[in-house]
Design goal:
By secondary structure, the protein is mostly helical. The chain is built from 18 helices and no strands. The chain is 83% helix and 0% strand. The chain is globular. α3 runs parallel beside α11 and α15 runs antiparallel to α16. The relative contact order is 0.14. The chain has one domain.
């Protein structure tokens, strides 16, 4: 991360992470496919209607783990071994406590959340069961995100990938066992997901117990270092709030989808799976930009930081561009993987055309947002995304969609909000870099 060829280093970091993200989404897609083909369209809708709420939980957890990723990577760049160890052990404690709190309090709010989303009556009970089981597994989700963030901070994306492959296969097998073999529906899918997350998180924790460097976890060293927690909190909470606001805006869009009927919800759910696959690749390059920039920021090599961002953006444009074009061209094939209903396939194709076509813009937001966080500016991208994406989407739902009450009108909010947010993110990044480089005019040149 600190020297050598940047684009090769980014690919070595991002490709296993992208594969990890894609496999995670494929396993989620398997959930949808199993309930869509072996249960019912109602079961598919019950899982789909919960997607914004489960994403809300995940986005908060991922946001908080961003603080761990940046702080540990920064300390590694400074070669502060003692600080790295304290940050790692503090992060594990934070993950366990916050995960348990969500696991206890979350299920108590399920009725309120599904009611607020105006969940259709014919799928309410299944949706309620699915979300309750999912939230009970929150401690494992939190631990999974934080242990992954610790390994990523030192450039290790290979072992989390291997762990996910194993857990994902178990997830798919359990889906079939619970849904096909035991006659369960959405509840079987949720239970399989929780078990897979438990396997992944515990395995990664065991890996950290067996490390031989600064990130090694030891039970006797578990602590709560207040100054480091403040740094992790200051960087992670804005990212968590950003994820929360993203999810809330998507919840409001989901309310609009619910108003259009369960077939639209099922179609949108199917299309969302393909769209998220592009996003997962984007997120990998965003994480790469954040981690690489954070280490080089710690080493005060700001020109190299700038080269990292340029390479991350270029690689993302090439890879996400190819993937999104393939998904759009073969939209009917991919939609058919989740349902045999022609109406559901039609609604899925519409979502792919209107949203997946613009995923490159969303990906560039991830890269510039990650770069700003790597420089320690976590609040800036959060504010830009809240204003440019979340507020704009909410305004669109209550204005344009209220007038033109169509599926297509609702989907336009995605591309429009991404364009606005990207413009703001690029400006903020350039101002940040100019300020940093002006402080160290003699910083060494980077190698591309």
């Amino acid at each position: 991360m600190l020297q050598g060829n940047i684009w090769k280093g980014l690919l070595r970091f991002a490709l296993p992470l992208a594969a990890t993200n894609l496999l995670q989404q494929l396993f989620n897609a398997a959930d949808m496919a199993v309930v869509g083909h072996f249960a019912s369209s109602e079961a598919l809708s019950a899982v789909g209607v919960n997607a914004p709420l489960t994403n809300l939980v995940v986005n908060i957890f991922v946001g908080l783990s961003v603080g761990t990723n940046v702080v540990v990577a920064n300390l590694l760049g400074k070669k502060d071994a003692q600080g790295v160890s304290r940050a790692v052990h503090t992060s594990i404690v934070v993950a366990l406590i916050s995960g348990i709190l969500v696991g206890v309090l979350g299920p108590l709010l399920v009725d309120m959340m599904l009611g607020w989303m105006q969940t259709p009556e014919n799928i309410f009970e299944m949706a309620h069961t699915y979300l309750t089981i999912y939230l009970l597994g929150a401690p494992f989700i939190m631990l999974l995100n934080f242990t992954s963030a610790i390994l990523r901070s030192k450039g290790d994306t290979r072992r989390p990938f291997i762990v996910l492959v194993i857990a994902g296969v178990i997830n798919v097998v359990l889906n079939i066992v619970f849904v096909v073999g035991c006659g369960m529906d959405a509840d079987g899918v949720a239970l399989a997901t929780v078990i897979a997350n438990a396997i992944s998180s515990i395995t990664l924790l065991v890996i950290l117990f067996r490390e031989t460097d600064e990130v090694r976890v030891e039970l006797k060293k578990l602590c709560f270092d207040w100054p480091l927690f403040v740094r992790i909190f200051a960087l992670g909470v804005p990212a968590g709030i950003q994820g929360l606001m993203f999810s809330l805006s998507n919840v409001i869009i989901q309310v609009g989808l619910n108003e259009l009927g369960s077939q639209v919800v099922a179609g949108s759910t199917a299309g969302l799976n393909m769209e998220i696959m592009c996003y997962m690749i984007s997120a990998a390059f965003g994480q790469g930009a954040m981690t690489f920039v954070s280490q080089n920021h710690g080493a005060e090599n700001y020109p190299r930081c700038r080269s990292i961002v340029r390479w991350a953006a270029l690689l993302l444009i090439i890879i996400v561009g190819v993937v999104s074009v393939l998904i759009v061209v073969f939209a009917s094939f991919f939609s058919g993987l989740f349902s045999a209903d022609p109406e559901v396939i039609g609604f899925s194709n519409i979502r792919i055309y209107y949203v997946t076509s613009f995923e490159i813009i969303c990906g560039l937001i991830e890269v510039y947002s990650g770069a700003l966080r790597g420089h320690g500016k976590s609040m800036t991208p959060a504010v830009i995304c809240i204003a440019g994406i979340c507020v704009l989407r909410i305004a669109w739902v209550y204005t344009a969609f209220a007038v033109w009450h169509t599926y297509e009108c609702l989907l336009i909010a995605y591309a429009l909000s991404w364009i606005v947010a990207l413009a703001g993110m690029v400006v903020a990044y350039l101002l940040c870099v100019r300020k940093l480089e002006s402080k160290v005019p003699s910083a060494p040149n980077s190698s591309c």
